[in-house]
């Protein structure tokens, strides 16, 4: 017996691994913010973008969208 009476789309192939912890990259990206005070201001954007990307991936993987 199927869970759904009609096909339900899933994530694209290879988009997310079932064994991937969505929090795996967050700690590493956030740790990159630790030394912001030692970096030139122009380099801060790259670090914040990395954290934003990891948070986006983690949030989107919650519902597998």
How much β-strand is present in the residues? under 5%
Mean pLDDT, all residues? 77
Total of DSSP H or I helical runs spanning 4+ residues: 2
Q: Which range best describes the helical content: under 10%, 10-25%, 25-40%, 40-55%, 55-70% or over 70%?
A: 40-55%
Biased composition (Pro residues): 1-14
Region (Disordered): 1-23
Characteristic terms for this protein:
65 residues; 2 helices; mainly alpha
Tell me what you see in this structure.
By secondary structure, the chain is mainly alpha-helical. The protein has helices at about 25-30, 45-60. Helix 1 packs antiparallel against helix 2 (about 45-60). The longest helix is centred in the C-terminal third of the chain and has 19 residues, at about 45-60. It is elongated, with a radius of gyration of 17 Å. It starts with about 25 loop residues before the first helix and ends with a helix. The mean pLDDT is about 75.
What is the strand and helix layout of this fold?
Elements: H1 24-31, H2 44-62
Helix pairs in contact: 1-2
Summed up:
The chain is mainly α and 65 residues long.
């Amino acid at each position: 017996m199927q869970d759904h009476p009609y096909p339900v789309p899933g994530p694209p192939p290879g988009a997310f691994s079932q064994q991937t912890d969505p929090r795996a990259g967050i700690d590493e990206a956030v740790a990159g913010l630790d030394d912001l005070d030692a970096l030139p201001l122009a380099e801060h954007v790259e670090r914040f973008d990395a954290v934003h990307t990891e948070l986006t991936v983690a949030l989107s993987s919650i519902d597998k969208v």
